[in-house]
Amino acid sequence: MNSKDASLIPVRSLRGRGTLTNPANRFARTVSEADHDGWTEDAPLTAATEVRIEQSKSIITRNQSPDLPFDRSINPYRGCEHGCVYCYARPSHAYWDMSPGLDFETRLIARVNAASLLERELSKPGYQCAPINIGANTDPYQPVEREYRLTRECLEVLLRYRHPVTLVTKGALILRDLDLLEELARHRLVRVMISLTTLDNEVKCTLEPRAAAPAARLRIIRALSSRGVPVGVLLAPIIPMVNDVELERLLEVASDAGASSASYILLRLPREVGPLFEEWLDTHMPLRAEHVLSLIRQCRGGELYDASFGKRYRGEGVFATLLSQRFALAVKRLGLNRSELNMDLDCSLFAPPGSQMALL
């Protein structure tokens, strides 16, 4: 059985993986169906991670989304070993002729020339400095970063040329780079958002199996804050009847740990993510699955997803409005998102490669 036949594996036995199947990507010309003929009874209990090396042609991705607080981003890796079943980035794996299911979390692509490309793009004539986000699509501190160090190399380039950066992660490996983050923070060049989804370890282990534990993420916030690195918390995603009840508590513990800002995103289920999430519900929360899906549809105009700008992150309707009101009240009570605690990053220090930096 080759790696493309991963859907034949009885995936409920795969430890540390988020999805239950490996559906064909939407661009595939042919589709294979599993025939359970008994040959898979002794299938392995784990699925190994494969990493493909890529020499990319460009590294900065631009966007014009009114829903995002940045217009450019870097993703050193394609696919993400954290295996979060809800990940909105899963459909992008189809562009590389792989499945948004198990392939997304087991067949990764490391863009090994990311740092050199970044330096080249920053040096282009006419480049206008604005904060670059790292981690908009896949987590920059997923386990393979320990070996490939692509995120660290990009941070070194950004620090060298005094370029502002924001990071989003749920990986404890970020603490390895405290030295760089501290130096960036001294120049008002960095802000970090830690994704915190639940405080329930059992839910976390099936929802986002290889991401850091809830307690570890709070330690990250505490460590960054104590070293002067601006850090906030991102409740992403909020899932009706799964973790929405934790909203206030998540904000409280993050604030106690040192987070100065907060945001949230309602569950997004684009393309292949919807069926994968439904499989997860049927397996891990079968008694409440229909209730969860019903509330999601109430927030998405009767569908599982609405990609419209202004709606895709927060939804609409009674339940979505209630979430927004609860979040706003908790943020106000905890003193989060105060302007004096969350200053804009400084773009004036940027010194392009090849230029002379100011001494002071």
Question: How does this model look, in words?
Answer:
It is globular, with a radius of gyration of 21 Å. Strand 9 (231-238), helix 8 (247-257) and strand 10 form a beta-alpha-beta unit. The strands form 2 sheets. It has a 7-stranded mixed sheet with strand order 2-3-6-7-8-9-10. The chain has a 3-stranded mixed sheet with strand order 1-5-4. The relative contact order is 0.13. With 360 residues, it is α/β, with parallel strands linked by helices. The chain is built from 11 helices and 10 strands. The protein has one domain: Alpha-Beta Barrel (TIM Barrel).
CATH domain fold name = TIM Barrel
What does the average pLDDT come to? 88
SSE arrangement, N to C: EEEEHEHEHHEHEHHEHEHHH
Radius of gyration, in angstroms, nearest whole number: 21 Å
Shape: globular
**What order do the strands of the largest sheet run in, or round the barrel if closed?**
2-3-6-7-8-9-10
Which percent range describes the beta-strand content?
5-15%
Helix coverage percent: 25-40%
- Tally of helical runs: 11
